[in-house]
Amino acid sequence: MCHKYTKFVPFITMIVVAESGSTKCDWLMDDGSGQLIETFTMGFNPFFHTTDVVIENLKKNKEIVENASKIKAVYFYGAGCSSEDRNAIIKEALCQVFENAHCQVGHDLNAAAYSTCEGKPGITCIIGTGSNSCYFDGENVHEEVPALGYVLGDEGSGSYFGKRIVSDFIYGRLPEDLMHDFRGRYGLSKEDIFSEVYHSSSANVFLASFMRFLVPHKEHPYFVDIIKNGLRHFADIHIACYSNYKEVPVHFVGSVAYYFRSYMEEIAEEMGFTIGNVNKNPVASLLDYHKKTESVA
Predict the structure, then answer these.
(1) Is residue 148 scored above 80 in pLDDT?
(2) What are phi and psi of 106, to 5 degrees?
(3) Least C-beta-crowded within 10 Å: which of 10, 91, 97, 129?
(4) 3-state secondary structure of 154
(5) Is 40 in contact with 96 (CB distance < 8 Å)?
(6) How far is CA 17 from CA 39, 79, 140, 192, 281, in A?
(7) Which numeric CATH code is attached to 2-112+282-296?
């Protein structure tokens, strides 16, 4: 699949760039004079959220409300924003909140590629709440394999590891020290977990929230192989699918990629690919991209 972009409006006055995962959306505003305003909201994914939900939450944000009328262009990139009908859900909300702005909605893969590849060919991977990858040829973004979501895919992601943590907790497979820590930190019963996973519209975010438990324990012997195997599973599906993965840099965005970089470096050495840029949050680089070009996904 190829995600193309079209020329649209020049960089003028005040612009906003937003990069949204399913958990959190980062917003960066530039008033044209170099002054930046940074804020964040909940993540917006058109698979799970309606236009009204997006509007309601945007209007709760002080920085957005105070500056909305001054903004002339909004570049929003998000998880799930990969078709015109789904993008319309987000775009309608943006247009209602930013009444004077040209609003453009694009896929998070495009944001990842634009913020890491620096205009040169490369593979870019997203590993955050969910996971995906693309190849950027210098002009267009190509997706070789689809993202299957947290039920069928999202290999190596926060929701992927979160699923393993809560299932091992329920099965009683966590080592005693981790079991004690998990119980003390969360106080969750099997019924609590089932309710969040099977009766909530944001089960993926719930599962990914347990990255806060995994990260400080990432060197625990119980988790080392789990992390490496999960990232290797991701690399086998989402990196090795590109025939030139050993010839171009492989970039990463997302919190999981950022915190587990050392493990991914081991996998890169095993598989023979070269790691390029690793950005926990691509929004600043994305803003720089849009200040230099008139292109948008």
Answers:
(1) no
(2) -140, 170
(3) 10
(4) coil
(5) no
(6) 11, 15, 20, 37, 12
(7) 3.30.420.40
